[in-house]
Amino acid sequence: MARGGDWTVRLVEWAEARLGKSFAWGQVDCVILCLEVYDLLAGSAGSAEVDGSAVAEAWRGRYASELEGVKLARDENTDLRACLEALGCTAVRPGYQQRGDLILVPNGLYWCGHVCFGTLSLSVRPESVVEWFYTAAIIAATEHGEAVILRVP
Q1: What confidence score (pLDDT) does residue 99 get?
Q2: Are 41 and 90 a contacting pair, CB within 8 Å?
Q3: CA 61-33-146 angle, 5° bins
Q4: Which of 11, 74, 96, 114 is the most buried (most CB within 10 A)?
Q5: Phi-psi category of 60—alpha, beta or left, where left has phi over 0 and alpha has psi -120 to 50?
Q6: What is the pLDDT of residues 75-98, one digit of tens each?
Q7: What one-character-per-residue DSSP string does 83-152 give?
Q8: What is the model's pLDDT at position 143?
Q9: Which residues touch 110 (CB under 8 Å, ≥6 apart)?
Q10: Cα angle for residues 45, 47, 49 (degrees, 5° grid)
């Protein structure tokens, strides 16, 4: 799959459309944001569909709380990292991340995802809104450097 020549423009437009949106489990959370970026970048010619189905839409609305999200991942026998790796995302060493990469940080029972734009990354926290965070701070915040950076094909 190819990202298409205008992928950086589409990624910025996607980010602008989400900035300031309120957090909602299963609708506007860090998992859904990462899956939307996968759809945007890996979808054929940049469409939202990937191999006939939109990955984010397959998860959107299926959980409405943290506990429901963890149960869904367990029932589906996957988590955000495993899902993205199964879709062909590949690991990148910290320090080599670039625009469009997904930064996953372990958060207890699940992975919290952030979308890299270089110095800044887009993400959302419970009881907050989609906003910018410093990428280096996200990576450094993990206790033992457990952050995983995945590149979307």
Answers
A1: 96
A2: no
A3: 115
A4: 114
A5: beta
A6: 888 889 999 999 999 999 988 999
A7: HHHHTT-EEE-TT---TT-EEEEEETTEEEEEEE-SSEEEE--TTSBSEEEEHHHHHHTSTTS--EEEE-
A8: 62
A9: 31, 66, 69, 70, 73, 79, 80
A10: 115
